[in-house]
């Protein structure tokens, strides 16, 4: 459920007409709903009710500080994967003890930054990384809390580019080697083992892979405890999928996911962390774009938009489907017609949808890409020297620009020309 609904024939974000935002900020832009963000956060919070838990929002999904602050004020922690994300979370007011640091390639500088600024734990992905964390912590005279990310070798049954839990993926240490790696962790100075971490992939639409992974984590917890490790925290990663279309079968709900966590791991008495990103932000955001031209091609009509693959890369990168809706609600009985919906970038890959049925549209009409809140703005680029598009946050009948569109001068002046030219 989200808060982007038609009212009086026009699409709204909560109580604000999308067309009003478009008139104020220009197109294209991203718009997020505070109510949807909070609703999704609370669904997880309620799903883990009765269990000691922290929901560490995977801020890679949508990392604007206004979004982070909205969630942090509701009680969320953050899952960060770079020094930049760490600083951004801190700038948004998230305390260090609510930040978990994930990622396969943390550098010594990033580790130092987090140890000095405060961190809940590092999710360690390899033995070489563990040694660097130990060395940096020792040098600073502090103790680094760690979990080790185990790779449980389960098939997440999702898009290959976002599956992470198979043994051939670069993530984590093989679960079969966990005893050795934990023994090594216990022997290194400056480290305190607090738990286990697992994350098997993103956009999972069934619970079975989670169940397989979490059962393995339960077994491992008992084994590691019997080997003398104080396993008291389990970070279970993110990955619960969202409905990208209204027609297909809906993925499991956070409540069912929470129940699965309780069923598979509840008996261990561990503190539970989860790292959802997409489910919190995905359906809390739209990308709004304007039709520049309607072009008749060979046997097909193209809607050429002012938004492009650089603004929303998911269709080009993962063949992802996004529902696309007109901002003016079609009158009942309007006959739909197929369009190829494309951006102005000079590549055929700059195609959002082929033969998508839409009401008849004309130049200047506004359309909205649904489910664009996660992995939308954060994956945008300035390809073709197209400015990163603004982000807007709505709350009730208010809206605010939370990242302005840069000027062309700002973009162009970032280049520096060597003196020999
Ligand atoms: N934790 C870790 C360690 C992760 O690697 C990820 C996502 C998450 C949590 C959050 O997963 P989520 O709850 O959002 O599924 N750009 C791709 C998705 C990449 C996901 C990367 N890792 C897309 O647009 O589909």
UniProtKB/TrEMBL annotation:
<keyword id="KW-0457">Lysine biosynthesis</keyword>
<dbReference type="InterPro" id="IPR029066">
    <property type="entry name" value="PLP-binding_barrel"/>
</dbReference>
<dbReference type="GO" id="GO:0008836">
    <property type="term" value="F:diaminopimelate decarboxylase activity"/>
</dbReference>
<keyword id="KW-0663">Pyridoxal phosphate</keyword>
<dbReference type="Pfam" id="PF00278">
    <property type="entry name" value="Orn_DAP_Arg_deC"/>
</dbReference>
<dbReference type="InterPro" id="IPR009006">
    <property type="entry name" value="Ala_racemase/Decarboxylase_C"/>
</dbReference>
<comment type="function">
    <text>Specifically catalyzes the decarboxylation of meso-diaminopimelate (meso-DAP) to L-lysine.</text>
</comment>
<dbReference type="InterPro" id="IPR022643">
    <property type="entry name" value="De-COase2_C"/>
</dbReference>
<comment type="pathway">
    <text>Amino-acid biosynthesis; L-lysine biosynthesis via DAP pathway; L-lysine from DL-2,6-diaminopimelate: step 1/1.</text>
</comment>
<feature type="binding site">
    <location>
        <position position="314"/>
    </location>
    <ligand>
        <name>substrate</name>
    </ligand>
</feature>
<dbReference type="InterPro" id="IPR022657">
    <property type="entry name" value="De-COase2_CS"/>
</dbReference>
<feature type="binding site">
    <location>
        <position position="318"/>
    </location>
    <ligand>
        <name>substrate</name>
    </ligand>
</feature>
<feature type="binding site">
    <location>
        <position position="239"/>
    </location>
    <ligand>
        <name>pyridoxal 5'-phosphate</name>
    </ligand>
</feature>
<dbReference type="InterPro" id="IPR022644">
    <property type="entry name" value="De-COase2_N"/>
</dbReference>
<keyword id="KW-0456">Lyase</keyword>
<feature type="binding site">
    <location>
        <position position="375"/>
    </location>
    <ligand>
        <name>pyridoxal 5'-phosphate</name>
    </ligand>
</feature>
<comment type="similarity">
    <text>Belongs to the Orn/Lys/Arg decarboxylase class-II family. LysA subfamily.</text>
</comment>
<keyword id="KW-0210">Decarboxylase</keyword>
<feature type="domain" description="Orn/DAP/Arg decarboxylase 2 N-terminal">
    <location>
        <begin position="36"/>
        <end position="281"/>
    </location>
</feature>
<feature type="binding site">
    <location>
        <position position="278"/>
    </location>
    <ligand>
        <name>substrate</name>
    </ligand>
</feature>
<feature type="domain" description="Orn/DAP/Arg decarboxylase 2 C-terminal">
    <location>
        <begin position="29"/>
        <end position="373"/>
    </location>
</feature>
<dbReference type="InterPro" id="IPR002986">
    <property type="entry name" value="DAP_deCOOHase_LysA"/>
</dbReference>
<keyword id="KW-0028">Amino-acid biosynthesis</keyword>
<feature type="modified residue" description="N6-(pyridoxal phosphate)lysine">
    <location>
        <position position="60"/>
    </location>
</feature>
<feature type="binding site">
    <location>
        <position position="375"/>
    </location>
    <ligand>
        <name>substrate</name>
    </ligand>
</feature>
<comment type="subunit">
    <text>Homodimer.</text>
</comment>
<protein>
    <recommendedName>
        <fullName>Diaminopimelate decarboxylase</fullName>
        <ecNumber>4.1.1.20</ecNumber>
    </recommendedName>
</protein>
<feature type="binding site">
    <location>
        <begin position="275"/>
        <end position="278"/>
    </location>
    <ligand>
        <name>pyridoxal 5'-phosphate</name>
    </ligand>
</feature>
<dbReference type="InterPro" id="IPR000183">
    <property type="entry name" value="Orn/DAP/Arg_de-COase"/>
</dbReference>
<feature type="binding site">
    <location>
        <position position="347"/>
    </location>
    <ligand>
        <name>substrate</name>
    </ligand>
</feature>
<dbReference type="Pfam" id="PF02784">
    <property type="entry name" value="Orn_Arg_deC_N"/>
</dbReference>
């Amino acid at each position: 459920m989200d808060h982007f609904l038609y009212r009086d024939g026009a699409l709204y974000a909560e109580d604000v007409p999308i067309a009003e935002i478009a008139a104020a900020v220009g197109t294209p832009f991203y718009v997020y709903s505070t109510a949807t963000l909070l609703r999704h956060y609370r669904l997880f919070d309620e799903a883990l009710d009765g269990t000691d838990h922290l929901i560490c929002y995977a801020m890679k999904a949508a990392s604007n500080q206004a979004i982070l602050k909205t969630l942090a004020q509701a009680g969320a922690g953050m899952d960060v994967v770079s020094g930049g994300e760490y600083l951004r979370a801190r700038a948004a007011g998230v305390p260090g003890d609510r930040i978990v640091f994930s990622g396969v390639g943390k550098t010594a500088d990033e580790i130092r930054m987090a140890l000095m600024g405060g961190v809940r734990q590092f999710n360690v992905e390899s033995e070489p990384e563990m040694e660097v964390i130990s060395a940096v912590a020792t040098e600073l005279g502090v103790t680094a809390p760690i979990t080790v990310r185990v790779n449980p070798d389960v098939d997440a049954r999702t898009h290959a580019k976002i599956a992470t839990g198979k043994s051939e993926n670069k993530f984590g240490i093989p679960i079969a080697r966990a005893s050795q790696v934990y023994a090594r962790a216990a022997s290194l100075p400056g480290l305190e083992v607090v738990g286990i971490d697992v994350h098997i992939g993103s956009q999972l639409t069934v619970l079975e892979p989670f169940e397989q992974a979490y059962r393995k984590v339960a077994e491992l917890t008992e084994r590691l405890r019997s080997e003398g490790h104080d396993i008291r925290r389990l970070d279970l990663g993110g990955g619960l999928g969202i409905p990208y279309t209204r027609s297909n079968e809906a993925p499991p709900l956070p409540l069912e996911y929470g129940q699965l966590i309780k069923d598979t791991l509840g008996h261990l008495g561990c503190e539970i962390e989860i790292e959802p990103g997409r489910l919190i932000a995905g359906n809390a955001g739209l990308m709004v774009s304007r039709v520049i031209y309607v072009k008749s091609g060979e046997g097909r009509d193209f809607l050429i938009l002012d938004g492009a693959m650089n603004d929303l890369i998911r269709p080009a990168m993962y063949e992802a489907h996004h529902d696309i809706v007109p901002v003016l609600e079609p009158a009942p009985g309007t006959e739909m017609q197929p369009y190829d919906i494309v951006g102005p970038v000079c590549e055929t890959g700059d195609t959002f949808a082929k033969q998508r049925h839409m009401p008849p549209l004309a130049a200047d009409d506004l359309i909205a890409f649904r489910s664009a809140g996660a992995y939308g703005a954060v994956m945008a680029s300035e390809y073709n020297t197209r400015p990163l598009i603004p982000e807007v946050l709505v709350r009730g009948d208010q809206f605010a620009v939370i990242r302005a569109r840069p000027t062309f001068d700002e973009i162009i002046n970032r280049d520096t020309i060597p003196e020999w030219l």
